[in-house]
Automatic annotation (TrEMBL):
The chain crosses the membrane at residues 6-27, 39-57, 69-94. The lineage of its organism: Bacteria, Bacillati, Bacillota, Bacilli, Bacillales. This is Uncharacterized protein. Keywords: Membrane, Transmembrane, Transmembrane helix. It comes from Alkalibacillus haloalkaliphilus.
Length: 101
């Protein structure tokens, strides 16, 4: 695995590590999982807007326009949708458990 793809994966993991705890904090303060999910979505989307252009420029220099770059971006988009759905389920579950306690 080359450095550009490795850095791209590290940035994506960093987005998850930053956005989900922020969503948890907002959910606990406002006592609504929808606010937490909105925070997760907003923060992760804004951070993705910074990472995608970097990846496109770095990959264009390194790979010279191969299909792998496009496939990586499509895969990240699909995984992003899965991440938002899983975040929604986890936040809703945590919210329901805190209401039951």
């Amino acid at each position: 695995m080359d450095t550009v793809n490795l850095l791209f994966i590290i940035f994506l993991v960093a987005i998850v590590v930053i956005s989900f705890p922020l969503g948890l904090i907002v959910m606990k303060k406002r006592k609504d999982y929808k606010d937490g999910l909105s925070t997760v979505f907003l923060v992760s989307f804004v951070l993705l807007l910074f990472v995608f252009p970097w990846y496109q420029s770095a990959a264009a220099e390194h790979f010279a326009g191969t299909m792998g770059v496009i496939l990586n971006l499509v895969l990240v988009f699909v995984l992003y949708i899965v991440y938002i759905i899983v975040s929604w389920l986890i936040l809703m579950l945590i919210h329901r458990r805190s209401l039951a306690s």
